[in-house]
Every structure is written in C-alpha cells, then in structure tokens.
Amino acid sequence: MSTKLKPQHWPMWLMWRLGVNAVAWRRVARPGRFALVFHGVARQRYPDVPAGVQPHHTADELRQTLAWLAARFAFLTPDEFLHGSRPGVLLTFDDGLANNFEVALPILETFAAPALFFVATGHIAAAEGGSRWLHFCRAWAAQGWGDAAAVPAAIGHEFYDGMTEAQLAACGRHPLITLGGHTVTHPFLTQCDAVALAGELGECRRYLQAVTGQPVDTFAYPANDYDRRVAEAARQAGYAAAFAVSGRGAGLPAYEIPRIGLYTTHPAYLGSKLNGLHRRPLVGPALPEGA
Ligand SMILES: [Zn+2]
After folding, report:
1. Residues by chain with Cβ below 5 Å of ion ligand 1
2. Residue 93 in contact with residue 118, Cβ under 8 Å?
3. CB 228, CB 248: distance < 8 Å
4. How far is the CA of 22 from the centre of ligand 1 (A)?
5. Mean pLDDT taken over the chain
6. 18: CA distance to ligand 1 center in Å?
7. pLDDT tens, residue by residue, 23-77
8. What is 10-164+175-203+212-232+240-273's CATH topology?
9. How far is the CA of 186 from the centre of ligand 1 (A)?
10. CA separation (Å) from 290 to 12, 21, 238?
11. CA–CA distance, 234 with 202 (Å, rounded to integer)
12. pLDDT digits (tens, 9 = 90+) for 142-175
C-alpha cells in the first residue's frame, strides 16, 4: 500500500541489500515469465479512512510499480503469456472495479502495458450511479463507516463501485485490455453446489461476451478458492485457462496458472517477489501446445 516496509518484509530488504535480488533477476527472473495480480486503484490515499478498507494501490503507487517493472521486464499480452515464450510479465486486475477503468487504465496507457481485467459481473451497473457492491465491498464499507449508507458517495464510487456496462464495452474495444471471468457474485466456489458453480462460471462468461461482443477465454478464481471440481467446472464452462494465486495441486495445469500479488512499492519488496526465488518463473507457454 505504500513505500514503507513492514517488519515481515525486512528479510526482503536484507536480500535486496546483499545483492541477492540483483543477481537473481539476471540469472533466474529475466529469462522467465510471471503473471501478476492487482485489485483496486484509488486516486489517492485518505488518511482519515482505515487503510484496510482502501484499495490496495493508489495511482502513484501503481505508476511506481509499473516503472519498476518496465525497467526490468517486458509487458506481455495475455496471448503472448498463454501461447508464446517471450520472457516478461502479464498484468491482471481482479474484480471489475470502476477504478480499474477510470484510474488504472490511463496509467496502463502511459506504459503501453496490456492487462487482463477479471470481472465479477454481479456489480456491473447498467448506468452511472447504479452501484451494486460485491459482498466484500459492503463488508469493508461497514468496517470503515459502520454502514454502507454512511460512505461518502465519491469515496464509495472510487473504492467500491463496479464498472458500468458502457465502461465494460469500452474495455472490450480497447487495444490494451482483455476481459476475463471472475464469477457473478464473487463466492467461495468450493462451497457452491454444482448448479450454483455452473451458473457463476457460465453466466459471467455469457454476460461479458454479450456486452463486449468479444470471446472470453480466461477466468480467475475469487479468493484463490478452488479445487479439482471447480477447475473442471471452469473447463466445462468454456474457459481455455484459469488463473489462481498459489497453486493447489488440482491436477489441471491450464486451470491453475499461478500469479504473484504485489501490495507495496518498495524496491526490496518488488525485487524479492520477482527475483524467481519467491516463485519460480514460468519458462515457455502457460498453455500446452494446441490448448
Ligand atoms: Zn476477486
């Protein structure tokens, strides 16, 4: 959330100071490929609002992170990441928040950085002002203000609103953006019965395809909650690939592509998460030939 390092990051700082990261970037990370996961991006940090209910990044923090990445890695398109073997990073953003369109996208444009937006379609509003917050957004609002109705309208929009249908359609036409599924209501998928699971996966994909007129081939599991049954259901719903955070050994590699979450901008933190030692980089296409 900031450039400050928390105590749990001090070993990362030590690795950075000892030069471990610098050597590892050259030897391990540079020839490899990583998928990264971001969430909300606020315009600024609000000192009067508890940090835990604010989006993970501000615009400045995203800019700093992308500048750090641009100096070390190529930005890959989803197609290059899934089917090619060029080293680099794939940027992904979860949840379909309006701030991804309004705040993050202009920053991605300045870096010419492609990104995959994974959208939970249940909070997409037909028009401006028609906010339908996802359950965790409502919980954060209640935690920060006692009641969702007490959140100032501008802050509620900046932090928690989903995109409008018009913004989603604009993402579908944007040369840097690819849309992927992230369910309808953002549930814990391992707790859904077969009917609910098929609905969450299938309705999300159908809706995104209908609004954008584009095929939707990728999916990301909310809260990294999946198992073999859920991964199999993602395949059944027509997705060609699904992204996790840490793998859970479901036995379907194309449906548990790991990602790295980046939550602060300190170079020691970024370096240690992307030096190839924290998570082994992918070498070669994420999807097997012909997938
Ligand atoms: Zn999510």
Report:
1. 94-95, 222
2. yes
3. no
4. 32
5. 92
6. 35
7. 888 888 888 999 999 999 999 999 989 888 999 999 999 999 999 999 999 999 9
8. TIM Barrel (3.20.20)
9. 6
10. 39, 35, 15
11. 8
12. 999 988 888 998 999 999 999 999 999 999 999 9
Contact 38, 262 (CB under 8 A): yes
